[in-house]
Fold:
Amino acid sequence: MKRFIKRLVALVPIVVVLVLLVVLASPVSALTTADVAVNATPSYVTITNAPDNYGFGTVLVSTNTSTAVGYFTITNGSSVAIDIAISCNATWAGGNGWTHSDTGTPASTTAALYSTPNTVAWNIIVKNATPNNLVAGLAASTNQAWGLRLMSPTVYDDGVLKTNTVTLTATAT
Amino acid sequence: MRKAIIVIVMLGLVLVGCAQVEPIAPPAPIPPVQPVDAPEDVDWVSPGKVWVSNFHTDARAEWYITVHNGSGKESPFRIEYKYPARTDLGYYKAPPDVVQDWVIVTDSTLVLAPWETRDVLVALVMPPEVPEQRAQFLQFTKDGSDYLVESKRAFWEKHLAGFMGQYPNRPEVARAKANETITEAWKGYVSENPQFDLLVYLDNKGSLSWELFYKDRMVTDEVFIGEFKERQYVIEGNLLKDKWEFWVDVKDVSQTGEVQVSMAVRWLVSMRV
Structure:
């Protein structure tokens, strides 16, 4: 009997390993938790924008250079009304690069961008981390003109072309 | 006999292990909701909004996002968490330093064939334990942002007026001089003024957990936070109690222009009361 118990005890680690293998190898439930409800409506969201670029040309330090207020046009091709957020990269590429100011405050090798939904007030800061809304409630199958303003850095440290990418993000209103 | 006992014991243990895999019968998987009459020749994403209700710790919420490639060429798409630019009334902007980790996109980089439509599973998974300092967060409001913008404008106008006084007959020179100095002066003013320094920090963060706030800032900032709360420049939310929102962004990364577009699915989450 003693020998049997010893053998049984010796088997325990093996059994534990086997059980663990079976448990760990089993797929974890990948479904919504039973008491949580998830719903959605069958809408779709799509936008286009044209043109897709603008060259500000050669700009002096500490200057504001703008497109026409309605230079770009967004078309809402969605099945629903949409909002459009505007954002950009955290840095300007090219040469030594520029930092992008999320507070709309240019500084030494730091540029800022502002936008407008086709009004004379350039008061929407184009940010990287926390995007602002450019347009709210744009109805389906309608257009929205908009413009972009560059506030150049107060100091340059190279003469290399700089670029940034602005992204317009559409969401259902 | 002994062998039989060993086999029975082992079998029993294995069966017990198997029985623990799914203690509760999960609901049936929800098929993607396909939009009606969606166009073929443009990129689109569906649905526009996903509502999650009765959410709680240790819970998981899933939905399929449908992505369509509207071009006649193979296109790569990136699907990822995005901080919301706005929310529905009554919803908070969830702090990205916490919620970003809870959003799981099963296939975050897709390559779609011409005009292909594909469903991608997105899951929101809340951990079993969420410490109070991670659950509670600050959100910078439009009032706070407006106050910062107005303060900056007033600062600029004051300095511009000084240069106008120096160059009364040459306003273009005064403006150029002002442009050269004002931005640096504003930065200096902010760095020496703890109240504005904190406002700029909050403006940059949008919303953040108390955990991140304490990690980044001095405890003395709590005095200013108290003032900002009174003025409604910041509001406090709680991920375990309040309604909150985040976005899942879908972008065709083959775009080459400097102005690009993306489409985001809004996720609106209501917690279990």
User: Anything to note?
Assistant: Chain A is about 15% helix and 35% strand. The mean pLDDT of chain A is 87. The domain at 47-172 of chain A is CATH 2.60.40 (Immunoglobulin-like). The helical segments of chain A are 2-25.
